[in-house]
Amino acid sequence: MDHKIQHLINLYNKGLFNDLISEAKRFIKEDNKNFIIWNILGAAYKILNDLNHAHKAFEKSIEIEPKFSDPYNNLGIVFYEQGKLTKALELFESAIKLKPDYVDVYSNMGLVLKDMSLFDKALKTLKKGLTFDNKNKQIFFNIGIVYQEIKDLENAEIFFNQAIELDPKNVDYIYRLSNLLLSTKRYDEALILLKRIIQIGTNTTNINKVNFWIKALEGKNAETAPIKHIQDIFDKYAKNFDESLVDDLQYNVPKLIFDKLLEIKKDKNFGNVVDFGCGTGLVGEKIKDYCSLLIGVDISKKMLFEAKKKNIYNKLLNIDIITFLENEKLNYNLFIFADVFIYVGELNEIFQLIKSKIKISGSLVFTIELNENKDYFLEKSGRFSHSQKYIEKLASMNSFKISHFQQIKLRKEFEEFIKGALVIIDF
Question: What domains appear along the chain, each with residue ranges and CATH number?
Answer without folding.
Answer: 3-224 (1.25.40.10), 232-426 (3.40.50.150)
